[in-house]
Amino acid sequence: MVDLFYLFLLALLGSIIALVGGVFFLFNRKWSATLEKYSVPFAAGVLITVALLGILPEAIDLVGEGVLLVILVSFFAAYLFEHMFFGIHHHGVMHYHHRDYAPVIPLVILGDSIHNFIDGIAIGASFLISPGLGLITALSTFFHEVPHEIGDFGILLKAGWRKSKILTVNVLSASFTIVGAFSLLLFSENKGAIGMFLGISTGIFLYLGTIDFLPHADEGFPSRVKAVIPLFIGVLVMALTILLFPHAD
């Protein structure tokens, strides 16, 4: 029972608590702009580091180097999914004033819910390896969800939604992270399946870090050199976290 409660807290950290970015957007635009500017490069460093140093070694340990093919397929599947079905970019949405977002709102909400469910799968699979790895993955999910939620909240606000409705819909969407995390309990005795889910998570985290966040890491900064600072802070923070929280059985 204690383990289930801990898993719930981790999923909560990676989902509903991460709505802080969107809440800032609704009630303090200046803070939100600053938060988004620094969190995008920071999240890129976090995601890439966790994928390569945290999740990937465990996936290989469980199912061998064959999981690299799963990672490759997951990486390009994420690309195709985003660009063919949900090809609206969330970062920097506050800078676009004349786009009509209303027609794409259902796709934004559906895409965000699926994204949150996948985050939950990553947290659940990592947790089943060890609570330490679960914490590391939940932290990475939190950090990349903060700027993502700023974008989502911005799109809904520009579409004319009320703040209360935006909060309600995003809380419901974020709850899919909890559903995804607990769904992995069905595979708690199947190490092969857990390894494959870890491989999928690695591919998606690498995609988000390298394609979704890294190309936008220097937006809002006066120079690219300054943008590198939060990027490498993200790398350093998660590398130290991985060292400090043992995640091997």
Automatic annotation (TrEMBL):
Tell me which InterPro entries the record gives.
ZIP
GO CC terms for this protein?
membrane
Q: What's one GO MF term for it?
A: zinc ion transmembrane transporter activity
Membrane topology designation:
Multi-pass membrane protein
Q: What's this protein's name?
A: ZIP family metal transporter
One short Pfam name that applies is Zip
Residues of the signal sequence?
A: none
Give the top-rank taxon of the lineage listed in the UniProt record for this protein. Answer: Bacteria
Localisation per UniProt entry = Membrane
Alphabetized UniProt keyword annotations: Membrane, Transmembrane, Transmembrane helix
GO BP terms in the entry: intracellular zinc ion homeostasis
Task: Write out the transmembrane intervals.
Answer: 6-26, 38-56, 62-81, 166-187, 193-215, 227-248
